[in-house]
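Module 6 notes. Inverse folding takes a fixed backbone as the condition and produces residue identities as the prediction. Think of it as a translation problem where the source language is geometry and the target language is the twenty amino acids. Below is one complete input and output pair. Work through it position by position during the lab.
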């Protein structure tokens, strides 16, 4: 909490309510930066449809 600083959720000064520290998926839980609300995965997948070389014509 940053009492005296600007609130990150509302247009006001921080009043120390702690709402910004709560989990978006489970409001009873303090956020631990698990990333479940962001759907973060450990790996990224890119599907390649076609490879175009400079000497090839389409």
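Target side of the pair, the amino acids:
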């Amino acid at each position: 909490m940053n009492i005296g600083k600007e609130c990150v959720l509302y247009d006001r000064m921080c009043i120390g309510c702690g709402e910004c520290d709560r989990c978006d998926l489970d409001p009873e839980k303090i956020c631990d930066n698990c990333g479940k609300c962001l759907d973060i995965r450990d790996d990224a997948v890119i599907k390649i449809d076609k490879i175009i070389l400079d000497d090839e014509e389409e």
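Reference fact for the lab report: The mean pLDDT is 83.
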